[in-house]
Write a structure and sequence with these properties.
This is Peptide chain release factor 1. It holds the Pfam family baeRF_family2. It comes from Actinospica durhamensis. The protein has eight helices and 16 strands. The chain is α+β, with helices and mostly antiparallel strands. It has three domains: 114 residues, Translation, Eukaryotic Peptide Chain Release Factor Subunit 1, Chain A (2-Layer Sandwich); 136 residues, 2-Layer Sandwich (Nucleotidyltransferase, domain 5); 100 residues, Ribosomal protein L30/S12 (60s Ribosomal Protein L30, Chain: A). The strands form four sheets. The protein has a five-stranded mixed sheet, sandwiched between helices. Strands 3-2-1-4 form a four-stranded antiparallel sheet, with helices on both faces. Helix 4 crosses helix 5 and helix 7 runs parallel beside helix 8. 39% of the residues are buried.
């Protein structure tokens, strides 16, 4: 995944950056009260850690900002100096709701979740047209919703015989094709708006092949997946569940391919692993993709500087001219900050993949 979305988190001067990770799941009627109590406790803890009221009030206005979404979910919020630096919806709740204060933001949980999310569009189709919703990665709500309704004339093929039957059939097929073309145009624009990786289609089985042809004509680069469901209101819940399963399958395949790419890069001397080797590669700006495992509990403390986010060292003096103003932080968040500054991407290092310290990097060029 692209780490550019993390850049706003590092705009604050290092010091007292608040990172909040919340379980905002709404699976029963007590969910809102439970979230209220959880945030109240976290707010009290943050105040005890010295977070100012201005910053806490800014967080107050962001907590639980998607109350209409039902089911398991989470939220990551980042704030400093009375301002929100970033707000992200999580597809899964964090292992535990927590709020921490550090010299830099701690978005590891956020990135691990977003790394498994994909930008996509959903097309609910029938022979008259379709509804298209476009979702950026990490969004509960669509960025755009479009509807295309074409002609309804001659949509049903007639069953009677006679010399006019073939003409009626041609008109019906032509109308379906014209409607599919209209839906495809809207879908292509929606996909471009969120840089969609996937186009999920549900609906009339006779209209779907026509839409596929029209999407190809539009040059849609997204992977097309068909799921059960459709344009009817009573099909919406089943379609939503099918969409989530389809996206999870695609994400899983993406990560398996990334692990294969890492293995191949190691064999070609274009990858490193272990914290010392990775932070050296980050400092040189040679990291193409940073790979971190989800468990960072054993991360050591390292030193960094506000002047150059790509520099990480084991001691202040190793930072040269920046040593006097160096600050200390855990390796994981500092490596994420360095990767974002260096234009690197990120992928989770999957369990079972060999890498010292649960940390690796695919390089832009051979060592």
């Amino acid at each position: 995944m692209d780490l550019d979305l993390l850049r706003p988190l590092y705009t604050a001067t290092p010091g007292d950056v608040v990172s909040v990770h919340l379980d905002t799941s709404r699976e029963d009627q007590d969910a809102d009260k439970r979230l209220e109590l959880t945030w109240r406790d976290l707010r009290r803890d943050l105040a005890a850690q010295g977070v100012g009221e201005e910053t806490l009030e800014a967080l107050d206005g962001q907590v639980g900002s998607a109350p209409h979404i039902v089911g398991p979910q989470g939220e990551s919020l980042f704030a400093a100096n009375g301002k929100i630096l970033g707000s992200f919806a999580l597809s899964e709740p964090p292992a535990a709701s927590r709020g921490v204060v550090g010299l830099v933001a701690d978005p590891l949980e956020t990135v691990l979740d977003l790394d498994h999310q994909l930008p996509y569009i959903v097309i609910a189709l029938d022979r008259e047209g379709g509804d298209i919703d476009a979702y950026p990665a990490g969004a509960f709500d669509p960025e755009s919703s479009r509807t295309y309704d074409g002609t309804t004339l001659h949509l049903s093929r007639v069953g009677a015989g006679g010399p006019s039957m073939a003409s009626y059939h041609r008109r019906a097929v032509n109308a379906w094709t014209d409607n599919a073309a209209g839906v495809a145009r809207e879908a292509a624009e929606a996909a471009t708006g969120v840089d969609a990786r996937v186009a999920v289609i549900a609906g009339d089985p006779k209209a779907i092949p026509l839409l596929r042809e029209e999407l190809a004509a539009q040059g849609l680069g997204a992977e097309i997946v068909e799921v059960p469901g459709g344009r009817r209101d009573d099909a919406a819940a089943a379609m939503r569940e099918a969409v989530e399963y389809a996206l999870a399958d695609i994400s899983r395949a993406d990560h398996e391919r990334m692990m294969t790419a890492y293995s191949d890069a190691l064999g070609r001397n274009r990858a490193v692993h272990g914290i010392p080797a990775v932070i050296d590669a980050l400092a040189r700006g040679s990291v193409d993709t940073l790979l971190l495992s989800a468990d960072r509990s054993a991360d050591p403390m390292k030193w960094a500087t506000a002047e150059d986010a790509m520099l990480i060292a084991s001691a202040p003096e190793a930072l040269g001219e920046y040593g006097e103003k160096a600050f200390e932080g855990k390796a994981g968040p500092l490596m994420l900050r360095a990767a974002a500054a260096g234009g690197a991407s990120f992928s989770e290092l999957l369990p079972g993949v060999e890498a010292d310290d649960g940390c690796a990097a695919i390089l832009r060029y051979a060592k």
